[in-house]
Amino acid sequence: MDISTYFQALEPSPYETADEQKNIFGKKVSKNLKGGPFPEYANFDIAIIGVGEDRGSVRNDGCCDAPDRVREKLYALKTSTHNYRIVDLGNLIPGEEVRDTYSALTSIMVELLRQGVFVVILGGSQDLTYAQYVAYQKLEETVNIVAVDSRFDLGSTEEMLSSESYLGKIVLHEPNFLFNFSNIGYQTYFVGMDQVDLMDKLYFDSYRLGQVHKDIEEAEPIVRNADIVSFDISSIRQSDAPGNGNASPNGLYGEEACQIVRYAGMSDKLSSFGLYEINPLFDNHDQTAHLAGQMIWYLIDGYYHRKKDVPLKTKTGFTKFHVALENTTHEIAFYKSTKSERWWMEVPYPNAKSRYHRHHLVPCSYKDYETACNNELPERWWAAFQKLN
């Protein structure tokens, strides 16, 4: 498939061609530049795509201009010691209708995912997450989505697809290939208890902002279980990321955002990441673009620190623990990696549901193991069990 027709090539940046700047990130990235050939993307580990689409935004018109501002800050950062194999395919040309942009992004992602390329999307508005998801439906893969967001974005059944209703459209989409959805950083006064209760009834995971502040390491198993991560910049407090029309005084700290995306990059399962809702019109001295560039830097750093120690393919390199719970028929098998010291737990599932095979090993933490040892079912295990059985 020829995806080159979907893209607008990039202008060369003067600072990237300066001889004295030898160890900046921008020089390690192959780019689709004006006047040059379209890159052979299948030869790369990671592809960066700018999608300047904001017709689905709510109270944040102008986020279409974010991709190039984020690139400017990202490519000026210093490199690490990795053998980078990254390509920037340029900016997706917006469709005549917003649905045309969704369709184009889905087609591009299908091609890149088939080639085993990790996709990084610089948005644009968060409704583009819907196009991210549909790509996996085209590949007939059941997926887990993690959204880092102060809201759930469920919307209502009558609502048009937008940055505040994309999740509801994904949940109702037929055929449905969504296995699990998790939210990190929601704020109860933005979502209401009715939506919290709905998330519980759907056996979706939700991790409140206060929980993140208290123990950010408990967010790691959540993002380790994701195929898709969608990060709304408005989940970060306004003082750290003012560049958003919906910015709030409360939210994640910049350091927490960078830690979460590094966790995401380190996940062997994750195959696409979208950073959305950055709006240069509201930004103060490009502070949000600076933070976004650093977040992508940490995402890529995490990617090149992947351990390749998922127990789904092999159980060698893992210590197995059996925990039998009293007064129940359940016995939980836990696996601890001897390489990374990360934990998983095994959830039984019927053979008839073999499409869910790769979801029966659930990333967890040592706290989940301690919970089971205290004769309690870990919430993560129980939610997965309900969906698999």
What features would you describe in this structure?
The protein is an alpha/beta fold and 389 residues long. Helix 3 crosses helix 4, helix 4 runs parallel beside helix 5 and helix 9 packs parallel to helix 10. It folds into two domains: 300 residues, 3-Layer(aba) Sandwich (Arginase, Chain A), CATH 3.40.800.10; 71 residues, no CATH class. Helix content is 31%, strand content 19%. The strands form two sheets. Strands 1, 2, 3, 4, 5, 6, 7, 8, 9 and 10 form a ten-stranded mixed β-sheet that branches. The chain is built from twelve helices and 14 strands. The longest helix has 17 residues. The mean pLDDT is 94.
Element layout with pairings:
Layout: E1 7-8, H1 14-17, E2 29-31, E3 46-51, H2 66-74, E4 86-92, H3 98-114, E5 118-123, H4 128-138, E6 143-148, H5 166-172, E7 178-186, H6 188-201, E8 205-208, H7 209-214, H8 220-224, E9 228-232, H9 254-266, E10 272-276, H10 287-303, E11 318-324, E12 331-337, E13 343-346, E14 361-364, H11 366-373, H12 379-388
Parallel strand pairs: 2-4, 3-4, 3-5, 5-10, 6-7, 6-9, 7-8, 9-10
Antiparallel strand pairs: 1-4, 11-12, 12-13, 13-14
Structure described in brief:
By secondary structure, the protein is an alpha/beta fold.
The CATH homologous superfamily name of the largest domain equals Ureohydrolase domain
CATH topology of the largest domain: Arginase, Chain A
What is the total domain count? 2
**What is the level 1 CATH name of the largest domain?**
Alpha Beta
Architecture of the largest domain in CATH?
Answer: 3-Layer(aba) Sandwich
| Proportion of residues in helical segments | 25-40%
H/E element sequence = EHEEHEHEHEHEHEHHEHEHEEEEHH
Mean pLDDT: 94
Gyration radius from CA atoms, angstroms: 21 Å
Residue stretches low in confidence (pLDDT < 50, at least 5 long) are: none
Number of strands: 14
Query: In percent terms, what proportion of residues is strand?
Result: 15-25%
- Helix tally equals 12
Structural class: alpha/beta
- The coarse overall form would be globular
Largest sheet: 10 strands, mixed
Task: Quote the distance from N terminus to C terminus.
Answer: 39 Å
